Amino acid sequence: MTTTSEPQRTTALIPKARAGLAGKPATRVLVPEHDQEPSRVRRRELTGGEGLLAGGLTAVVLVLLTINITGFPMASDDEGTYYAQAWAVATGKGLAHYTYWYDHPPLAWIQLAALSWIPDLFGVGGPAVTAGRVAMIPVVAAALLLVYLICRRLGMGIRTSAIGLLLFGLSPLTVTMYREIYLDTFAVAWMLGALALVLSPRRNLWHYTAAGAATAIAVLSKETMLVTLPAVCVALWQNAARSSTRPWAVGGYLSGLVLVGMFYPLYALLRGELFPGPGHVSLIGAWQFQLANRSGTGSAFQAGSGSYDLIQSWLFYDPVILIAGLLATVPALFVRRLRPPAVAAVILVLVAVRPGGYLPAMYVVQILPFFAIVAAGMVDVTARAVPDRRRWWRPALATVAVLLAVMLIGPRWVAGNHRSLTADDNAGYTAAAEYLRTSVPDRAGTTVVVDDVLWVDCVEAGFPEEQVIWFYKLDLDPAVRARLPNGWRDVDYLVSTPALRQDPSSLPLVTALLTNSTLEASFGPADGRIEIRRINKETPSS
Fold first, then answer.
1. Element of type H or E holding 521
2. pLDDT of residue 82
3. Which one of 223, 249, 287, 395 has the minimum C-beta count within 10 Å?
4. Model confidence pLDDT, tens digit, residues 154-176
5. Are 404 and 105 within 8 A, CB to CB?
6. Distances (CA, A) of 348 to 74, 206, 228
7. Rounded Cα distance, 48 and 142, in Å
8. What is the rounded average pLDDT of the residues 50-73?
9. How many CA atoms does the CB half-sphere of 377 hold within 13 Å?
10. ∠ at Cα 363 (362, 367), nearest 5°?
């Protein structure tokens, strides 16, 4: 009798009864141990009914997100810049409304330009930037659905996956930050897509290749998303079979990543702008500025620093998702199926608190979905810890958990979201845009300095593009200064906003405009007033 030796790797023997073959011995199928998952944590694809559930929950969140989207929060100069760059792409002016200097990869605002028809479809009013927020809704919807899908592909149940989606979507931080036009939102959606693809239970080669391409698109949407690449790699390594197919999966992923990612440096190389040199911008020069010359925001643990104050503002909006996510991240690292999102969360937290680093206000956009996933994942792990013989406990525990969440979290979230649904923080910008459109004579011959929130509004109101000047460029862009041979005296109007007044000492020409101007109109509350100021050209500079 000939026998076949068992393979060296550990295997499990799973009996498989064949119906209709009574009396026959059960066949045994050899399944590698690492490919096994208990049925209760098996990764599943969404069924039609479950897709409707996820879609319905997403729709509820989007309704909350879109109510008063043009009124709150107050538009920022960053939003205005990204929208103006998207406007330049949509109108065929180039990659930016000024000289594109590789400060960020352009793919996010190229996507925004492709979505810029959506506000017009719904007839959204207000300043162009706040109306443009409506174009972000499909991107947010994709992120919400992907959070649910990732939870399911991590082996979570339907209830805990829904908790993950709602924890992410209903948080006042999400309702506030995901309303705004940020590159990070595009990057997060694509990185979540990459994670969902590598976690696919089908394990098709094209899934891994597409995941590599999605990762590259995420990084080309916002370069800081690169720090979460290890999380996708961990998921790829865990999900790909340890047999000869794993090298193919890794190769497919790297192929998609490199082939798509190389377009950006190739673009710079073909334009002769890859390396620093006299008389032109460069990709590597922009990297050097971002890494070496950008001043930090101080220690996250030092009271009064920029980073500390920013984190306190995040906690003011919603401590629930931040604290729950942070507490869930460490134990999630030791749960194999939750390790990928936990790795992403750990890296993002460490980057945020690194000494001497720069922490921007929109950074929390990247953290929120991963915190929601790991928090929901630990709820799922806790629920599954109930012994099988006591499964009837699980619905009871779930009911108690939901009631506690409603009682403890609900009032805080209702209060946190109330202002986002009712406040009109952009009334000043709306009135200023209307004043510039109707009350400034000879707009075709007028030069106006503004922040980027009103840049598109001024151009659409009839001011020539080259005569609408983003205030930063007035001091920092030689091409703009060349248009003004007489310096600040060649400017007719200044629109003074909180962003413009934030640090005038570093911008001498802006300071001169503030000093040598007369207030014509003022809109909005004192702490966020928008001023229309006429330049006194005959006054000597002080």
1. strand 517-523
2. 97
3. 395
4. 999 998 999 999 999 999 999 99
5. no
6. 26, 28, 7
7. 17
8. 95
9. 33
10. 125
CB 519 within 8 A of CB 535: no
Closest CA relative to residue 201, chosen from 154, 156, 158, 234: 154
Hunting for tokens 């538009």 — which residue is that? 75
Task: Tell me the C-alpha distance between 375 and 381, whole Å.
Answer: 10
Residue carrying structure tokens 């749960």: 335
Would the pTM count as exceeding 0.70? yes
Report residue 126: phi and psi, to 5°. 95, 180
| Angstrom distance (rounded) from CA 251 to CA 217 | 18
CA distance 483 to 486: 9
Per-residue DSSP letter, 277: B
**How does pLDDT run across 209-255, given as a tens digit for each residue?**
999 999 999 999 999 999 999 999 999 999 887 667 888 999 999 99
pLDDT, position 8: 40
**What token pair was written down for 515?**
């000093």
Residue 11's H or E segment, with its range, is strand 11-16
Side chain identity at residue 266, one-letter code? L
Which of helix, strand or coil describes residue 359? coil
104 SS3 class:
coil
Which sign, positive or negative, has the C-alpha torsion 304, 310, 313, 319?
A: negative
* Dihedral pair phi/psi, residue 520, rounded to 5°: -105, -40
Give the whole-angstrom CA distance, residue 369 versus residue 349. 13
CA distance 275 to 272: 8
For residue 93, what is the DSSP state? Answer: S
Residue 496 β-bridge partners:
531
Give the three-state DSSP class for 185: helix
Element (H, E) at 468: strand 468-470
Report the alpha-carbon distance of residue 63 to residue 478 in Å, rounded: 45
Query: Which two tokens mark 19?
Result: 């119906």
Q: Give me the helix-helix angle, 339-352 and 319-332, nearest 10°.
A: 120
Q: How far is CA 307 from CA 42, 344, 346, 367, 404, in A?
A: 41, 20, 18, 15, 32
Which residues are bridge partners to 30 per DSSP?
13
C-alpha span between 540 and 299 (Å, rounded): 42
Least confident segment among 55-59, 294-298, 320-324, 348-352:
294-298
Report angle CA 420, 424, 426 to the nearest 5 degrees: 115
